[in-house]
């Protein structure tokens, strides 16, 4: 009778140890998957007529889901390609970054221009308290900033939206 009690105790202890190891093994990959899911490749996205395109990666860290869900820091990097031969035409990647300011969600634009035929221009930037990142790719004449047609005609491609 004492042998059966000892065996029962050992069985319970072994079962508890196996359950604890299984729980730790399940939680560790889930935590790694959560941090890996914050980084994503985007593109290629093309301008009308395939006159330019952009491709890259976006990394969001420190998502906060309190009142207004935002990421602490969003880092966007990539390349813009100009596929037009005339030197007076450039490829544009225009980003619209919506961020949190108090309880409001204003936005700002970040534009990257490439005027070198088939030679990509690299870019990288980051913003804080980001709610959404959108992209529009255009090809138009060389200027200091993208035209209103580039900014407001067509649709924006969503690269990141805090959930």
Structure description:
This protein has helices at 2-36, 148-152; strands spanning 39-46, 52-64, 70-82, 89-99, 107-114, 121-141, 157-161. The protein is α+β, with helices and mostly antiparallel strands and 163 residues long. The chain folds into 2 domains: 1-37; 38-161, Immunoglobulin-like, CATH 2.60.40. Strands 1, 2, 3, 4, 5, 6 and 7 form a 7-stranded antiparallel beta sheet that branches. Strand 2 (52-64) and strand 3 (70-82) form a beta hairpin. The longest helix has 35 residues, at 2-36. It is elongated. The N and C termini lie far apart (59 Å). Residues 19-37 have low confidence and may be disordered.
- Average pLDDT over all residues: 81
Assign an overall shape: elongated
Q: What is the total number of structural domains?
A: 2
Low-pLDDT residue spans: 19-37
Return the CATH topology of the largest domain: Immunoglobulin-like
- How many strands, which pairing sense, and closed or not: the largest β-sheet? 7 strands, antiparallel
Structural class given helices, strands, pairing?
Answer: alpha+beta
SSE order, as H and E? HEEEEEEHE
Separation, N- and C-terminal Cα atoms? 59 Å
Beta content: over 45%
Helix content: 10-25%
CATH class (first level) name of the largest domain? Mainly Beta
How many helical elements? 2
Signal peptide: 1-33
Protein name: Secreted protein
Keywords: Signal
């Amino acid at each position: 009778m004492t042998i059966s009690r000892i065996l029962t105790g050992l069985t319970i202890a072994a079962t508890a140890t196996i359950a604890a190891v299984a729980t730790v093994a399940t939680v560790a990959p889930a935590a790694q998957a959560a941090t890996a899911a914050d980084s994503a490749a985007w593109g290629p996205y093309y301008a009308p007529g395939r006159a330019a395109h952009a491709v890259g990666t976006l990394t969001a860290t420190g998502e906060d889901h309190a009142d207004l869900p935002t990421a602490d820091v969003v880092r966007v990097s990539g390349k813009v390609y100009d596929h037009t031969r005339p030197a007076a035409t450039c490829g544009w990647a225009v980003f619209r970054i919506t961020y949190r300011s108090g309880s409001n969600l204003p936005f700002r634009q970040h534009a990257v221009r490439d005027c070198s035929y088939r030679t990509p221009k690299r870019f990288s930037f980051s913003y804080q308290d980001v709610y959404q990142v959108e992209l529009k790719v255009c090809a138009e004449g060389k200027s200091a900033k993208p035209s209103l047609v580039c900014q407001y005609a067509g649709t924006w491609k969503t690269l990141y939206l805090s959930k």
